[in-house]
Amino acid sequence: MKRRLTEKLRAGCPGTEFLPAVAYTADDARKILEADAEVDGYLAYMIGGWAGAAEATAAARRRGWKVASVTSSRFEDVIAAVRLFECLKKMRSSTIAVVGADPGATGKAIEEVFGTRVVPVAFAEINAAYEKADRAEAKAWADRWIREAERVVEPAREEIEKSGAMYLALRAMMEANRAEAIAMNCLGGVYSGQTHAYPCLGFFQLNSDGLVGACEADIESAVTMLLMKHLAGVPGYISDPVLDTATNRVIYIHCVAPRKVFGPAGRTNPYEIRSHAEDRKGAAVRDLCALAGFKLVEEA
Fold first, then answer.
1. Is the dihedral of CA 155, 156, 162, 164 positive or negative?
2. Which of 81, 136, 192, 207 is the S-S candidate for 258 at Cβ 3.0 to 4.6 Å?
3. Is residue 21 within 8 Å of 32, Cβ to Cβ?
């Protein structure tokens, strides 16, 4: 039984190394814990109904340890739970760069809970990267975004090229800090004159390519998007929801949406390039698939 279960686990979780052991009592479980110094977590699979090792679960919860229980006859549910270990391991090796804002207590909480590094980046740093950005490459990104868009409504080409340079600056900051995610105080930077372009098209590209770009230095959303990237392989979408009770609809609005909502290998959504609604400046995207309405069907 142990061999068969281990084979199924290894097949379902190829990114996890399993070191099988057998515990019949709580004392056996304690000995295993004492002997292992370099493991990321434990999976206790109950084979016998009266095994005393189950007491370890309750003891772990009383101590505040991170324990999850799966009571299902479907082995895929066990696989899904074990993959959480892979996700948490990736979170501990991930970094979020925060531009133009102090991560403060939230950044410390993220580091404590997930082990994810949160690194502040000054506006001066991203401005330097923006100035150094290859303008020919920035124009190439502008060409691509314009070519692949259904249409460009308000922004001039110059504004989209500035977005291309800002995208390269974002990537430079991520590479310098070995970060998979970046959040930026975009409105604060632009409105105060401390930055020279909106990062929206850059975030759009990052989120479509399997990385994380978050608006308004929103590190709570950034860490959530990073968690879902590692867990499900799909991008997140920051939004301000509005409920329309008359039509049973939820309206989502924000400056950034990925075009690859099912992950980098998924299908591509059509989009338009628009200016920001609140100031009629910059360049952002409008995801045309997001315009489709959803009707709730009442049960008979």
1. positive
2. 207
3. yes
Whether 220 and 226 have beta carbons less than 8 Å apart is answered as no
Number of compact structural domains in the chain? 2
Rounded-to-integer distance, Cα 66 and Cα 254, Å: 35
Residues 242, 97 share a domain: yes
d(CA 169, CA 46): 52
Map residue 227 onto helix, strand or coil. helix
Token pair recorded at residue 43: 């999976």
User: Residue 241: which domain range?
Assistant: 93-291
pLDDT tens digit sequence for 251-276:
777 767 888 888 888 888 899 999 98
Q: What is the pLDDT of residue 293?
A: 45
Is position 192 within any domain?
yes
- Residue 212 φ/ψ, nearest 5 degrees: -130, 125
Q: What sections of the chain are H helices per DSSP?
A: 2-12, 26-35, 55-62, 75-92, 104-114, 123-132, 135-148, 157-176, 186-191, 200-208, 219-232
Are residues 76 and 107 located together in one domain of the fold?
no
Q: Could you write out the DSSP letters of every residue in 50-111?
A: T-GGGHHHHHHHHTT--------S-HHHHHHHHHHHHHHHHHHT-EEEEESS--HHHHHHHH
The Cβ of residue 7 has, within 10 Å, a number of other Cβ atoms equal to 11
Q: Are residues 124 and 36 in the same domain?
A: no
The amino acid occupying position 292 is A
Picking from 79-83, 199-203, 287-291, which range would have the lowest pLDDT averaged per residue? Answer: 287-291
Q: In a 3-state reduction of DSSP, which class is residue 2?
A: helix
- 259 close to 234: Cβ distance less than 8 angstroms: no
Q: Quote the mean pLDDT of the chain.
A: 87
Claim to verify: residue 118 and residue 248 sit in the same structural domain: yes
Q: What angle do CA 207, 281, 237 make, to 5 degrees?
A: 25
